[in-house]
Amino acid sequence: MRVLAALLLAALAASGCARVPAISDHLPEKAPVSVELTGVPFYPQERYQCGPAALATVLTWSGETVTAEALVPRVYLPAREGSLQPELRATARAHDRLAYEPEPRLRALLAELDAGHPVLVLQNLGLGRWPVWHYAVVIGYDADAGQFILRSGTTEREVLSTRRFLTTWVRADAWAMVVLPPGEMPASADVERYVRAAADLERTGSPEAAAKAWHAATERWPDLPAAWFGLANTRHATGDTPAAVSAWREALLLDPGHVPAHHNIARAYLGAGCPEHAMRHVRLGHEHLERLPGMREPLARIKAEVLAASDNDTHCAFE
Amino acid sequence: MKNRFSALLSLLASVALVTAGTFSVAHAGMVDSAAVMQMEQRTASIAQIEQLLERDRLASQMESMGVDAADVIERLDQLTDEELLLMQDRLEALPAGAGILEVIGVIFVVLLILELVGVTNIFTAI
């Protein structure tokens, strides 16, 4: 048996990681030497069902109490005896949570843990050629001991050496996801990744949840037109047209050539009985159409609708 | 994996061009943020996208892989276009996180192969 263990270690060592990075080299400034999020619940996995178990763990932590069993019909793919990343992401959104994928870097993972966010990770417990995919939730690290702490499979507190954890995580492209109540910022928030996550929530989640995510984005990046645009869209979808109009205006102040903002505000004006306002934005949108040729057709459609509106702005409530 | 993903993304990009007036536009003709991102990344032709994005095909693939027919529609509805495209035809290939139970089997296979090619001598020694 000792021979087997030695061989296994040799195989792992041969498979990469000549030098194991030290946790302390990648910690955010002022981060403690060790973190363990003991409040993160534990859902032991049933056979093969680590996807539902890991997702239930982070969803429940985020305030959305749900069991692993309840998630099985949403994320389990019987023929693969496992779960796929897109469905984990999508199901988190279906629970009105922001599904944010941090950069595939140790630094980002540690930043999330330092901020108190458990991180759902994909590991390849096998080898590159014979992958054994596994989802677990990282809940802590200990820089002095060189260890990571996970909720994993049927083990409530799994302790892995930095080398063992990184080998298995990097072999799965270092994929990670944090599941946050909308409005809370990921610690490692990168603009592009955040905008992607919020846009996906806007597309498939509730407008209220997406509005919170975009609102947080406008506070974090007040000069980002995309954040104001998303906030406006979701406010409009919740029925608050005046608030939506002011957010579209903000986007247009920051970027006067934002064609989709011209288009959407024109639609909102038309719906509010302000066809003259609407036409002004249709024209402005046309002026910048070369920036986003895909907007040609939607703009043409709203233009036709505005022209068909017989009214003028006499009853318009907007300035 | 990464290359294929970005290829899909760029193909997908032109979805919005085709669909900005149809299914990508929610809420009474509004263009949403996801549609804008697709338009910004536009590189592929319309025909490629139309060929690519077939919900029905993905639905039958999921059913044939054991997902309850009643769940398939809801599962597809919660996906973005990117996610639909990523999964379509690739249900067998994408990493499916499962469990630790098979690890033992994998280790065994590795050792067996090492043994067969003469690198190790465990089994004859036992």
Write structural notes for this entry:
The complex is a heterodimer of chains A (about 325) and B (about 130). Chain A is built from 14 helices and eight strands. Chain A has about 325 residues and is of the alpha+beta class. The radius of gyration of chain B is 22 Å and the shape is elongated. The two termini of chain B are about 40 Å apart. Chains A and B meet through helix 1, helix 3, strand 2, helix 5 and strand 4 of A and helix 3, helix 6, helix 7, strand 1 and helix 8 of B.
In short, what is this structure?
The complex is a heterodimer of chains A (319) and B (126). Chain A is of the alpha+beta class. Chain A has helices at 2-14, 23-26, 50-61, 68-75, 85-94, 106-114, 162-170, 191-204, 207-220, 225-237, 241-254, 259-271, 275-287, 296-308, and strands spanning 34-36, 83-84, 98-100, 119-124, 133-142, 147-152, 155-161, 176-180.
Give the topology, please.
The complex is a heterodimer of chains A (319) and B (126).
Chain A: H1 2-14, H2 23-26, E1 34-36, H3 50-61, H4 68-75, E2 83-84, H5 85-94, E3 98-100, H6 106-114, E4 119-124, E5 133-142, E6 147-152, E7 155-161, H7 162-170, E8 176-180, H8 191-204, H9 207-220, H10 225-237, H11 241-254, H12 259-271, H13 275-287, H14 296-308
Chain B: H1 2-13, H2 15-19, H3 33-40, H4 46-52, H5 55-64, H6 69-77, H7 81-87, E1 96-97, H8 103-116, H9 122-125
Helix pairs in contact in B: 1-3, 1-7, 5-6
